[in-house]
Amino acid sequence: MTESIIINTNVLLFDLDGTLVDSTAAVEKTWENQVNQHNQEFPDKFIDLPTLLNVSHGSRTIETFTAYFPELKADRDSVYAWEMGIVQNYGHLGKAINGSVQTLETLNEKNIPWAIVTSANPDLAAFWLDKLFHGVKKPDVFITASDVSKGKPDPEGYCTAFERLKKVYNLDGSSKGVVFEDAPAGIKAGVNGGFTVVGIASTFPKEVLLQAGATYVVEDFTKVKINQSGETVQLVLEIL
């Protein structure tokens, strides 16, 4: 059963993988291959795949490498090469989250401030946008793993994007932001930054997203309607 609620805000901040892009199958297949290889080579240091997936979604790859795969090189080039393997091997599995293309087109048409804040590297993020959002103007602010010193759940990425958008659109200090996220790490980043967080139930169930701190949860972007009055953006959500 759903109910409708209204949020008034000024800025919209979006995660990419799992939020705008349904890349879960591609990402999880890549992690599954890595875990299987690790467990064969290091049976005394067994990694449980479901446990790893729970923490890897929304986190930067370099942090997952450091925590679980000490045998892997965690320098920038090695991590980038591993991430690009996701799309080289399984890019065909990716698809746009329902309603996401139309949502971004609406934001551009109405000149509403929005940004992407992703834990992916710039090339991986660009691949998904070019493949699935062809023709959609990219946002004025685009934060990737290369732009932050600390990944989610640290709020650095979202706070940086918010401040940059305020400057680009000349918004005052009372401006508010809403974060859209699909994973606990990203939701915590939004909460830690002081934002209202809307969970997208594409990767994790509603209960997990609410437990992580999401204010509301929606099925996808077909459940999000956008209205505008001056600098105020009104979101009408059909929440789960």
The chain-level mean pLDDT equals 96
For the largest beta-sheet, the strand count, sense and barrel status come to: 6 strands, parallel
- Contiguous low-pLDDT stretches (5 residues minimum) are none
CATH top level class name of the largest domain: Alpha Beta
Roughly what percent helix? 40-55%
CATH topology of the largest domain: Rossmann fold
Proportion of residues in β-strands: 15-25%
Q: Work out the helix count.
A: 9
Number of strand segments: 11
Q: Provide the succession of SSEs.
A: EEEHHHHEHEHEHEHEHEEE
End-to-end Cα distance, whole Å, is: 7 Å
What class do helices, strands and sheet pairing give?
A: alpha/beta
Number of domains: 2
Biggest sheet, spatial arrangement of strands: 6-5-2-7-8-9
What is the approximate shape? Answer: globular
CATH level-4 homologous superfamily of the largest domain: HAD superfamily/HAD-like
EC number: 3.1.3.68
Keywords: Hydrolase
Organism: Candida dubliniensis (strain CD36 / ATCC MYA-646 / CBS 7987 / NCPF 3949 / NRRL Y-17841) (Yeast)
InterPro entries: HAD-like_sf (IPR036412), HAD-like_SPP (IPR051806), HAD-SF_hydro_IA (IPR006439), HAD_sf (IPR023214), PGP-like_dom2 (IPR023198)
Walk me through this protein's architecture.
InterPro entries: HAD-like_sf, HAD-like_SPP, HAD-SF_hydro_IA, HAD_sf, PGP-like_dom2. This protein is an alpha/beta fold and about 240 residues long. The protein has two domains: about 170 residues, HAD superfamily/HAD-like (Rossmann fold, 3-Layer(aba) Sandwich); about 70 residues, DNA polymerase, domain 1, CATH 1.10.150. Helices cover about 40% and strands about 20% of the residues. The protein contains nine helices and eleven strands. The chain has a six-stranded parallel beta sheet, covered by helices on one side. The N and C termini lie close together (about 5 Å).
